[in-house]
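User: I'm preparing a small set of examples for a lab meeting where we compare how different chains pack in three dimensions. I only have the primary sequence for this one, and I'd like the structure in token form so I can line it up with the others. Please keep the answer compact; I'll paste it straight into my notes.
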Amino acid sequence: MALPRGALMEVLRQSTEGLKLRSNVVRVFVSSTFTDMSSERKALLDKAYPELQIFCQSLGLAFEALLGNRYGHRPIPRVLPGKQFEVLLSKLPQDQVGLLHQWFRKDNNAIPPVYVLQPITTLLPHYNDLRPQSGPLQDDSVISWRYTEARLLQLLRTAAVQAEEDGDISAEQKHQFFKSVAEHEIEEGLRTPDGDESEPSAVVFVRELPHLRKKDGPKRLAQYTDVTADGLLDTEAQDLLSGLKSRLYAASPGILNLHCVELCKGAIEPSRKEHAQYLESLCEQLVSQTKACIARRVGAGSPMEAGAGRMNGAGGGDARQREGEEDRGWLLQELSHHMALSAGKCLGVFRGREGLLGKICLAMWEHTNARHMPLVVHGLPGVGKTTLLCKLAQEMRGLLDPRAVVVLRLLGTSAESSDLDRVLQSVCFQICSVFSLPPPTPITAHTREDLVRFFHGLLAEVSERGDTLLLILDSLDQLSPATQGQKLHWLPKDIPPNVHLVVSTDTGSPVLANLRRTVEVLGNFFEVEPLSCDQGREIMDAYMREAQRSLTPEQCEVVLRSFQLSGNPLHLKLLLDMARRWASYTPVTDLALSSSAQEVMSQLLQALEERHGKKLVGAALGYIVSARGSLSEAELRDILSLDDNVLSEVYQYWLPPNHSLIRLPPLLWVRLRHDLGELLVEGQANGIRVLDFHHKLLTETVQERYQRSEQQADRHRVMAEYFLGSWSQGRFKAVLLPPLTTTLDADRKVPRQPLWFAKGVANVKKLQELPYHLLHAGLWEELCQEVIGSSEWLYCKTLTCGVASVIEDLTLCTELMDCPETQLIRDTFILLKPTLDFLDGQMDRSLFYTEVLARLHSFAEMYPSLIGRLCCQCHDWLSCCPDPILVPKCTFLQPPGGALKTTLAGFHKGVTALDVCPEKGLLLAGSEDGKVIAWDLNDLEVIQTLVGHTAKVLSVRVIDSGAHCLSLAADGTLRRWSLLSGRQLYCTQEAVSINSSPSTTHIHVSEERALVFTHSGGQVSSTVQGRQSQWTLRQTVTELPVCATFLHASDDERILLAGCERTLVLFHRESDYVQSFLNLHHEDTVLCACVSSDSRVVVSGSEDQRIRVWSITTGNLLDSFLGMDAPVTTLALYEGTVVSASSSAYYLKLWQLPSPNDPQQKPKGCIPAGCPQVALTKDGDMVYYVRNIGQKEVITWNCHTGSSADTMAVSAEVCCLELAQRKKLLFCGLKTGTVLIYPLAFPKETLCIPPPEALPMVRCMAIGSQEKHMAVAYEDSVCLFEITARDSFPSVEGPSARFALSLLHSPVSSMALLPDCRLLYGTACGEVTMYDFKSASAATLDGHRSRVTCVTASNWGTHALVGSEDAVQRLWGLTPLVLDHTMEYKGFWFEGVLCAAFSESDKYVFTGSQDRTIKVWDVASGSLLFVQYVYAPVTKMLTYRNGFVAISQLGYVIKEGFRCPDDVSLEYNPLRNVKAQYRVTSREKSADSPHSVITEIPEYNPAQFNFMALMLKTKPSHSCQLL
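Assistant: Understood. Below is the structure token output for the 1523-residue chain.
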């Protein structure tokens, strides 16, 4: 049930007025007497509770009462009101009141006074002494107490009866002395939550034994009915039981279940059929009615419902439809948590901070209309910062504008509030919801940098609207270090008007040090100081009044004397929590109070150990602090039941009642939980109520007291076994109990821990906790098997918790364990992160497994135990996928361990300027959109986003050791910024000419003189704190021997780099001249370069999108990186890292320089990126390529060895490469018109097809599928050759046929030769023609709007695919020649088909496209079956077995198999992993071919127009020659 709009807005505004929060914990409490219901209890524990435990993932309180024929124990009331007790005394003779005075003492500290029953051990000290040597004394004490208890009850009941007759007490008051524990429990259980009678939360089962008679004997009577001490039937108890049943029948008929059972031999025997049926019926009724009860509570509306919905919807097909409701659900749950904590803080006593609160309010008021910096509240731990900020939030709601919104986060009090990303998401969603602003997009919400920018922009937008916002972030130091939140890069330092930001942290924490560096106004810091003794006395008096307690003067002095030593409010609170339990008769000499909060906590823990046992207390608190997140009560009880040390302490004097089932008795935990009081608080984690400590000081105390190294390892092991489910589902765990000499195998009744509870419902707690505990328990094999090496685990956690949490787990493993495999898997997920973030959790399982397998396949053989197993799991799943799927057979995506480290994004346009501060590890970048961003290169975190320029940034410079920076833009302004606060310090107008270019504009800083020089167009401007002067540059001019497009100098200015078209020239610079010493040649225009700090390496970027690393010493090319996907226009170097940027790309990329000691991992099937001409064998084992345009050699690459196998020299530039697979002939078409043929079986031989007369360039070549013929397209003609053999030696004869191309004919761009000597070809202008060499006829087919890039014939010659640079591809039937399908595909950015291959059966066609995808199409229907993103265009593709082999522009060989079920599901969407659309237009099968046939092409000889050819004295032969 959704919240009303008004109530929803109150929650979003975090108003705590009338706040009523409902628990989402399902507690099933069973009330019954013990002995007569033992069979029922055992049946419920075995059958009913496990099913309920799985079901209970929602809100509710379930109470079950099992009422039989026993009324149960009737105890003495522990506390009696003073006046009532004195009335009772007056009704008794004076000689009988002595016993009551002996056991009841008056406590005057209670208001009003009460009489308290003294602990049994006060007068009978050996009552609880279970040591064997104290046996007789303990037996005497037990007997004495039984007599004393009976006598006390008799006196009290006699007095109560008389008092009721005299009218001094009511009947209800009298009944308190007769009531049994069972009746009291049933009364409490039937009390409906929140007083809502429409939502019963109880189920009552009444069992009657109709034939139980007195003659059945005292033993049977004692088990199933109430008997007196002498063994007779207790008629009084039976009458009370009858009255209770009558009231239940009358008041709760709808929840009451009646069962009549006959005993067999005086007992209920589960082995008997009728008794088994009874117990089965009991369990079924209990489960069904409890589920209905819980479902009603969930239907009433709860935060948990939304949380469960969010978890259920993860990855589901309808998740997008519920997106708004889900976001609101988890947000409301988180807000409710903070509201409840804040309300609790404000309800307490608030004294001594009124002055400080007033100062903060005054500072906020003064900052209302001006830009300002955050307000910082700090103080020692426990000094009251959180209470102060909660009070501030409460007070400001009344003081601010009525429309003002207060956003409060008590950081670290829940899992959501400990994670920086979740905090920012919740704050942004709350602000957007309450101000009706558009929320962040899913991509923004899941990308830290974008989310921080959105957060900052949101504050500015609220300010511009004139709305008022107060944002309070308490305990910044409690943010998880794993999320880098404590470095405060994300925190706004320049707050706009009408927006207020108040934060707090501990004094002495690193967070405060960071705040002092970035918040430069000292008046914005407010220290919460210790309280004075008078303030402590005032708080004590108010606290006691609120608790309806008081202290004796002596007790007050003891408390104040201890508090005065610290002045800490937390210390005082702990003292008062202890003091409120003191009775007026508690002697002062017994009150030894400590002088600090931490010592008091130790004192409290010591008292708990004495009362509950050291091992139980230590384990309970130790498990809470050992958890990675938090534990629920149910989880903690289960874990304690698995701890053999705890069970040994619990059962040290007696054995458990059931030897086959051993657990921690629930009552022991309830007592401990009660005594812990407010030290243990409830929080929220993943929609579940969890336990946490009240204060971090208690966490530190517990760690110091109970977390020795060996204890930690044992606890992590137990928790690992729990989350593994090692002892669930009836698996017995052995334990050695002190009373026994042998181990006892018993069921611990802990729940199973599946990875998935149901479809789409993941076990979030297991995902979060298990890796942490396996690692810290040293269970490395289990960690590898269950987590790191489990594809299902990695997928589930990525989908449920996000890829960042997987990276966090793997990073933790790499830090604690020396395992290169884990590092590789971690790096794989870092490479995966941008893709998965882009998909925003809507990740298809097949995409995940494909990405992992295609990156790690090459490492499987090297690391078989971990990566090999992981790859096998991915392959097995893909091989059994029910949908069409491509299964990787090799590594073809960017593998881990390569040069690319990461990609930094944040701009909307290209990057125009870079600078690095090595001292602080800062990267500064400016862009076309006028934005400047600073990154911390150590953490790869955005430090500041600087907005102010209105045109592209020309130059940036980090100054003052990273404290400030300068930016110069085409708007003519020079701006100085603080990198600590993000504030603009000054702006100089007209520092350079408007619309200057980056290549002619520079900044130089003279920090000694505090001068900034800017140079543009021969003019130099100097700036001193914003004051500017100009003059014309006068200098000695040294002419360079080359024409340079850019210049760059090394740090020491001894080496000068000059870009001269395709050459980078290096100069030595002396005082008055420069001298070149090295020329580095490139394949395209050099755009930028930089030199390492040691002047040993130079890095260049060029127009061909490639980054090259050169040795200055030798001039050798050390490495090259391709992957920028744009011309590289800016470079920077930082400690072995290359930063590259482009004015055409909105991102930066970081690359690792090659190191001989740490070679980069590259797949063996990877050739250099960007090779212009490539051919490969059908199995993908060998690749033949030309390295660069104009290079006169063909290199052979062996993919098995990952090395070059041979180099074949050619006489001219290679224009195209083709390979006859079966005959093993490599054809190289040259720019001169020559075709060189390399028989691969005869490495030393080379064949040659001489060029035609006109020496035209070879445009393309095509080899028939049977390899009997080949066609060569020149600029002026197309020739057909025959591939034969002479004496087992290959030969090429011809040309056997030829047709000429007119001058107006566009060059042939792609073609395919059919088995019947028909040639299908396309041109650069989009024409498509079918030419028949046998009949010399041609048919013109439907053309394309752009260059034809792909013409591929099927293996059996029945179909052909024609694709072009536009979005259209056509599938033609060849017998007869008809157009079967027109397939149009619009991708996210690029379009156009580059290559294609048909499957062996011609059933499918695979295409590689410019949009970096591989697509699979059905030949019969033309429908799209599958789309796979491969991060680079695929340039060559061949049929291979049940799939294809291809090569990408990045140089990766791709081998994949295709699986397609016979019946594809109607719900299957081939575009589920990409953002695109497609359309298929198919012909009617009965339609005739619409294409006309041209029978003759006029003979045309282009040589007559070639004057160079006319000058030749002899015509070159077209026959193949052996070279």
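A couple of notes for your slides: The longest helix spans residues 135-165. The chain has 37 helices and 73 strands.

User: Perfect, thanks.
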